[in-house]
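Exam revision sheet. Question 4 asks you to relate a sequence to its structure. Input first:
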Amino acid sequence: MRLVIQLFAGLRERAGRPEFVLDDLPESLNLGGLKRELERRYPELGSLEHVAGVVGTDYADDSRVLAEDDSVAFLPPVSGGAPDADEALAAGVFELTADAIEPEACRRRVEHDSCGAVVVFCGNARDTNRGQSVVRLDYEAFERMAGPEMQRVFARCVQEHGDADGTNPKLALRMLCVHRTGAVGIGEPSVVIAVASPHRDAAFLAARFLIDELKLSLPVWKKEVYSDGHHWIGDRS
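Answer key, structure tokens:
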């Protein structure tokens, strides 16, 4: 069986390449078996126990049986755009950008005459972490997976804090998340989340939910760069 396996962030650096192409894998191999095979063939990868597997654009557990030419990616632990139409913002708009993010522009995009509250969260690059002086942050994203995963996060946010069944307009949400890729200078926003709602409670709760869930599951990785080295945040190896 032939598989192409993509690698990201710290995994890619340890492998010294962005992907493996394996042509001699056994049939009916599951994701867990593939991890063990990679560990055996490429010990420089280290343990893949805590590495998430993706098949296509869906997270998959180790029992997932793989088929010929499945698109497989392994994602180390983590720390596409849509139009600004009302319908899109109600469902949540997510964008990755290599350019600087302007928080005020994000606020203007979500505000609406029906909304009395707008909450904007900025996650800025700080100059010290882990007892070291940080020169800059480098962000890497698995773009094919990031958009679908963030849409799932938006959907859960609407279920928990929004007008999920369309019966309570007081809980209506308009949501935007913009995340940087590439190099981010100290003091610059790496992520901005803007939420608008008729009332403040829903806006505050939704903004907190989105940043917390994003850091748990979005396939975007942060590398802290120091004057004498670097460290991938969340990497266990």
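Marking note for examiners. Residues 3-75 form a domain with the Ubiquitin-like (UB roll) fold (CATH 3.10.20.30).
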